Amino acid sequence: MAVTGDPQALGQLLRSRRERLAPADVGLPADGRRRTAGLRREEVALLANLSTTYYTFLEQGRPVRPSVQVLDALAAALRMSAAERRYLQVLAYGPGESAGTGAAAGAGAAVTAPPERVAEGVADLVRRLEPFPTYVKGRRWDVLAANPAARELFTDWAALPAAERNLVRWMFTTAAAQQVYLDWEAEARAMLGRFRLAAARHPDDPDFAALIAELHRDSPHVRDWWPRHDVTAVGSGSKKLRHPRLGPVLYSHVVLQIADSPDQTLVTYSLVNGAP
């Protein structure tokens, strides 16, 4: 059966997670000083009930196809989060395939997606949510619509050239983002982790490849963090932001998937009561 995922990236993920764990983290006895950080391959294999040879093949990026049971065992052994487990599955099977079945639709075909459009009803909702900062981002995290409150809080997306209306690009290549996000490094790491999970679902999309190459070229943080294979689940929560008129404030935000365009999400912010 053909391998439709990304064996090299899968191996890199496994190695990075193995190197982050100490024996005590997984209930193994410490056995003195080690030449390298983390668990040994044979220890991961033992925890996952695999042969050391098979696990080594996976970590080396060999074109083998692990079963869903093997992936579950590895995820448990390496103490992976829910987002990391999803990322592991995408790397093993490809984005368009359910775990352990069938070939990924369109695997290996480099296809440029058509330009994204926001449905008029969604655009109208964004406008009606004023004065709550609200925007819609697309599959590649391009900002497709934003109300005046969002443009005031973050940046005037409509005033930027079309190629620069991208949330990740703005986060990592502008000084303005570091002024808006009071905890910029933590927020930037989390955003890159969410974007990485999205990018893994579009491995043959040249638009994603071009953006990732641009980020590596222009951001030393991306060059440093990308090889770590950190991923973060998309979700609602709170953020400390600096508003140009109100100063530092605490916002809660909600993330909603657009039913008719699943790659698009609407994000809306509101002030938390009692925020400084």
What does this structure look like?
This protein has 276 residues and is of the alpha+beta class. It has 12 helices and 5 strands. It has a 5-stranded antiparallel β-sheet with strand order 2-1-5-4-3. Strand 1 and strand 2 form a beta hairpin. The model is unreliable at 98-109 (pLDDT under 50).
Overall number of strands:
5
The averaged pLDDT comes out at: 88
Basic shape: elongated
Termini, distance in Å?
A: 58 Å
What's the topology here?
Elements lengths: L6 H14 L20 H8 L3 H8 L8 H10 L4 H12 L26 H9 L5 E4 L5 E4 L1 H6 L13 H7 L1 H6 L3 H17 L5 H13 L1 H6 L11 E7 L3 E12 L2 E11 L5
Antiparallel strand pairs: 1-2, 1-5, 3-4, 4-5
Q: Could you give a short description of this structure?
A:
The protein has a five-stranded antiparallel beta sheet. The chain has helices spanning 7-20, 41-48, 52-59, 68-77, 82-93, 120-128, 148-153, 167-173, 175-180, 184-200, 206-218, 220-225; strands at 134-137, 143-146, 237-243, 247-258, 261-271. It has twelve helices and five strands.
